[in-house]
Design goal:
Rossmann fold, pyruvate-formate lyase- activating enzyme, seven-stranded mixed β-sheet, about 15% strand, 17 helices, about 40% helix, single chain, 2 domains, alpha/beta, six-stranded parallel β-sheet
Amino acid sequence: MKIREISFIEARSPETHIFSKFPIPRLGCLILGTILKEKGYGVKVFIEDFERPDWPFVENSDLVCISTITSTAFRAYEIADKLRTKNITVVMGGAHPTFVPDESLSHSDYVVRQEGDITLPELLSYLESGNPPLTSIYGLSYKDKNGTIIHNPSRPLIEDLDNIPEPDLSLIPNWNLLNLYPISTSRGCPFDCSFCSVIEMFGRKYRSESVDTTLKKLRHIAAISKSTIFFVDDNFTANKKRTKEILRGMIGEGIKRRWAAQARTDVAEDIELLRLMADSGCHTLHIGFESINPKTLEVYNKKQGIEEILNCIKVVKDFGIHLHGMFVIGADTDDLNTIENTVDFAIESGIDTVQFMMLTPLPGTTFFFEILNSKRLLHTDWSKFDGHHIVFKPTLMSPQTLQLKTLKAMAKFYSWKYIFKHLFKYDDYTIVGLFGKRAIRQALKESRGYFENIGIPIPEANK
């Protein structure tokens, strides 16, 4: 098989939600596309949440690689099925195919599990020359000549991230229109939250590239783009010493750019780190507070308490850094009061933006198997596994109550008061608030049809 042109597609989200206006491409497709471009292949990367793919190019590709998380899986399968009718070889990867490879192989020719940086180039070598043998490619799933599904042994996670190339964003058509410029400097997470699929995908060991490699990337970004830099690492400050070295390098080299990152509440315990963040241009920290219910934090295995959350909000904002607070509602310890208390807490504490997500049992997580084994899963329409739909039976409230009250909590936060407050400050949050109100109103309207489709009654108060 001769391979010249390769398309990568990141399948689009199934529905509009409050942050749909600010898409951030997952970097898997870009990194793999860059690796293959450096090997001489013609490569284009299409991020459907950002722009419609160039279908003539895709349909004339020799190989199409599709990346998907759980909520985008049905869209990914739709694309894959269409391409396979045209005899195009399809490879699937990402979190969802990693955890349900058998299902994904009913829509694709190959599944690359976990990290594909080595697996995918080896697969291409096999397709072109038959070497290495298919059976020797770690991290690959496929069907043999008899139709039997084969899962090769998992590939050890990559230790030296300095060997991973900087993603070439020019592979995305009109990449310079992105609101944010994503950068990845590490993989894995040293923590073990019960609902999170990160450690199953990238391991619990925290792996990072060298400070010099990260600064080289930042110099390049500063030279070609004025967009806000977003560190997509699951926890940018997991190794605080390393993070400080990066920030000192940014300040010393004059790479002072507006940037944002994901972190934990423990960032507030290091004042020197926060000072370096503020001085280097940190605009927003995205922090997973998850809950203000102590019992829920324990269930989530979050390893943080309410005092740490309160201290984090105060200290971070004292440094002039904005906060995006992420909360996950619906644990067996949560009830209606939890939802009401959470939104009141978010408003009163001065968090700038929030996401109230419904707890979602994602394949591969501890929570998924708990819900599956207890027969509490409502369905497997993966398009609804997006944190905006209830897909299991909670313990202390009905599924309908959890969904409607969580959406209404978002509406309460993004109120007209919120919008007018930021309107007079002339900041970006006015747009967030306005878009949020519209998205939440639409979600509440569509909830009725969703409940009917999954066969659960609509609460009397909402008929």
